[in-house]
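ingest -> validate -> predict -> emit
validate: passed (alphabet ok, no gaps, 387 aa)
predict: started
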Amino acid sequence: MQAARWFGVGSAEGLGEGVGARAAGDALLGDDAKLLIVFCSQAHDLPLLLREIRTRAGDVPLIGCTTAGEIAASGPRDASVVVIALGGDGFAVETAYATEASQRLREAGAIVASCLPAREDLPHKVLLLLTDGLAGDQQQIVRGAYGVLGAGVPLVGGCAGDDLKMIRTFQLHGDDVLTDAVVAAGIASDAPIGIGVRHGWRRIGEPMLVTSSAENRVYTLDDRPALDVYLEHLGLGQPAEGDQEGLARLALTHPLGISRPGGEDKVRFISGGDLVARSLACIAEVPQGALVWIMEGDARSVLEATDAAAGDSLTALEGHPPLGMIAFDCIARRSVLGEARIQAEIDRLAALAEGAPIAGFYTYGEIARTRGVRGFHNQTLVVLSVA
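emit:
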């Protein structure tokens, strides 16, 4: 007899044929799967990968996205595929998607929020969102979902990656490979679901005033071109013309922090810049008139944030043991830790999960809304624990 609920994870390395089938096969612990979640490199033949997974799993609802690296219990991976499967009568799931998200970010969030199952017998609910982080101000997607669901339903998820190329990311829904899209799974459960979120960054240097900005682009800091001011504060030279990937790598370990009263700074991932207009592009809004700092972190502060985020998510399970854990971890935190220490973060998560399977991906931005209307984060770890 199968358990009332189960959480399975499968992973496979390499880009050849068969990796999707192997990962899906390992994740499917029973024949009553309710949802598949797929994280993979954009280097895969994505239509082939989906066909392999669907052939193995059938028509189980599926969402997923490309990444800046994949996470499995055995450690961080690149050019791999990770499949998570939720199953059993303790879960009910519906999925949705919205395309052309960059043209209607708030509307896209509202469209996918409609997929939350209306099951009174499954009182614990969450909306899992996977978005195109290059599509514009991601906070607008959160606002759109919040406008439909209100404060009673938490939001969680992350922004797809493209291995730091900063050109195009892909989202997966059912049999379809999408781009410039939002995909979502509304999950209802008969046991608690916990969310933890921490970043581990601290301010360095002097504050800067955002004197001109619009949505997710910063034009001037202290009345000077934002890119010039940012590079000067870091003591860095100019990036090569058109080298958006290079600029993003420079900015990985030094995001912008936005001061907010009564809490830790919001962090904004710098995804690139305009080397002619000398502006900075961020993954989410940087308001004009805000006070900002350059931020930095080290291995100790990042790993402390890992412990805190995972601990908070487990505390929210109200004493229930975790069935599984999903990590939405910013690629910048991986850069701070380096390859020598990134395994330590995965080992910490695995130890806190007490033997429950863990999986996730390295993101271009993270979603975690448990209270209030705001819920988009940058260069942060978000942990979803399922009881």
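The chain has a mean pLDDT of 92.
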